[in-house]
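Q: What residues go here?
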């Protein structure tokens, strides 16, 4: 007899159906797992054996073969424990094979038979619903699986024994309820920032259009402080975005308690981060920081201190909104539509504009330090602003009258205008764009083409500033966002002028 249980494997956030087949036959007593398992899957034999022993069950003295089909797909992760155990229980006659065929199972087994949480439950649940099947997962992941839809039959037992009792009819498992992560109670407020009104304006523009932002200024001028307050200006994730972002975090094993994300992610990796940690990869091709920040903010503090190859690896994801991890046997693509916010000092000592504090190598050290950022990467940043040091007079002023709530309200209005515009212009069958930062090609000219005076100014400035075609178009995107903040349909000369004020000659050039 051969018992079969459905489970899944992951390639990025893509779900591949896996058929777990278990056969018991005569011959030398053995327990073999085949089908290209990795180390964690191979070790599941001992976890399954110990879990069954905790239930008072012993494996028959037969030759047991577990096949994970299709055999040419690499099987990674500990979530294969539960389907292997269920297939064994089915072939032993403990569980009904008809019932098992209706479910997709994934979960890690502890030695006492308890079920431990695993990564990837949310995409597995969505795939199970599409295939008209139920889902069996550990209890801590039940709230995550419940978000797939009301039509999904979810069983989230705390232990293997509870699942067996459910199928035997001696215990009923309560369907899990969807859970959402609570908003941070004490989010940093923009009212805490004194002075630097130009930087605050640029932060509002960046939030309204999801534009990339670079802040250059001496130490202590408030660059990191401003970046930390950007998430408080952004609107919460809509349901489609929340599901997409949560799927990435689910595959990465970062959904706390199976709670769906509603706040936009904010990731701030350290300069010591490796290339796989930032872009994605590793032995299991997990999502990197740029994918975990999808539909949110990726903050890189002290930008020139990051290794040059690591910064260059950001160029393609920033342009396409996707991070591609290539391996010898497969390619994994993760969404990576992020808003890059970077901060840096003007030179290594940070005091280029202060003769009393600057080092002896100024101003030559500024060119050497800033040239660590390549021109192509610099060109992909929409807004470049100088953040000067805050004077003692500014620090003694009372808190500003306008805080994050007031700015966030204007940002929400501008975002709503963009969503309505691009929903009306989206081709049939394609998801609409969300923000001005994503617009390109003919559509950009259509929605952001300036008036005659604005076109003349943009053309003249492009020649004098030696703007690339990418820089030219990014000025148009920023101008479109400025027009949305003003609540006007067309892009005027003043919007082009302000958009150009946020462009500067590449550092060190």
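A:
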């Amino acid at each position: 007899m051969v018992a079969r249980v459905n489970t899944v494997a992951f390639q990025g956030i893509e779900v591949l159906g896996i058929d777990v087949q278990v056969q018991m036959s005569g011959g030398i007593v053995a327990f073999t797992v085949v089908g290209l398992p990795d180390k964690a899957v191979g070790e599941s034999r001992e976890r399954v054996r110990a879990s069954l022993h905790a239930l008072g069950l012993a494996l028959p003295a037969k030759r047991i073969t577990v096949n994970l089909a299709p055999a040419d797909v690499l099987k990674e992760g500990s979530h294969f424990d539960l389907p292997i155990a269920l297939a064994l229980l089915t072939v032993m006659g403990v569980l009904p094979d008809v019932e098992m065929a209706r479910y997709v199972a994934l979960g890690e087994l502890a030695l006492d038979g308890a079920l431990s949480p695993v990564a990837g439950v949310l995409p597995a649940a969505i795939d199970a619903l599409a295939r008209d099947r139920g889902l069996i997962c550990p209890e801590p992941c039940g709230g995550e699986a419940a978000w797939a839809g009301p039509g999904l039959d979810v069983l989230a037992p705390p232990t293997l024994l509870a699942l067996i009792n459910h199928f035997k009819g001696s215990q009923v498992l309560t369907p899990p309820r969807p859970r959402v992560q609570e908003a941070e109670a004490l989010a940093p407020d923009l009212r805490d920032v004194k002075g630097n009104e130009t930087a605050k304006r640029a932060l509002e523009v960046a939030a309204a259009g999801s534009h990339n932002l670079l802040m250059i200024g001496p130490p202590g001028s408030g660059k990191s402080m401003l970046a930390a307050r950007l998430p408080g200006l952004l609107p919460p994730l809509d349901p489609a975005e929340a599901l997409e972002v949560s799927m990435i975090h689910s595959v990465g094993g970062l959904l706390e308690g199976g709670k769906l994300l509603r706040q936009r992610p904010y990731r701030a990796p350290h300069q010591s981060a490796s290339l796989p940690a930032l872009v994605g990869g590793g032995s299991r091709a997990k999502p990197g920081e740029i994918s975990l920040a999808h539909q949110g903010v990726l903050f890189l503090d002290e930008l020139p201190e990051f290794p040059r190859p690591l910064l260059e690896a950001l160029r393609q994801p920033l342009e396409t909104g996707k991070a591609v991890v290539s391996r010898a046997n497969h390619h994994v693509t993760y969404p990576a539509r992020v808003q890059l916010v970077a901060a840096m000092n003007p030179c290594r000592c940070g005091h280029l504009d202060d003769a009393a504090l600057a080092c002896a190598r100024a101003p030559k050290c500024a060119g050497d330090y800033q040239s660590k950022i390549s021109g192509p990467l610099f060109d992909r940043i929409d807004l470049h602003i100088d953040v000067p040091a805050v004077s003692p007079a500014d620090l003694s002023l009372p808190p500003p009258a306008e805080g994050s709530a007031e700015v966030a309200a204007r940002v929400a209005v501008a975002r709503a205008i963009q969503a309505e515009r691009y929903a009306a212009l989206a081709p049939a069958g394609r998801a609409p764009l969300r923000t001005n930062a994503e617009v390109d090609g003919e559509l950009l000219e259509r929605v952001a083409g300036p008036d005659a005076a604005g076109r003349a100014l943009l053309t003249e400035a492009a020649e004098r500033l030696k703007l690339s075609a990418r820089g030219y178009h990014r000025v148009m995107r920023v101008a479109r966002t400025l027009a949305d903040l003003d609540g006007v349909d067309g892009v005027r000369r003043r919007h082009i002028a302000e958009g150009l004020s946020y462009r500067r000659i590449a550092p060190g050039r």
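A: Context that may help when evaluating the design: The chain has a mean pLDDT of 90. The radius of gyration is 27 Å.
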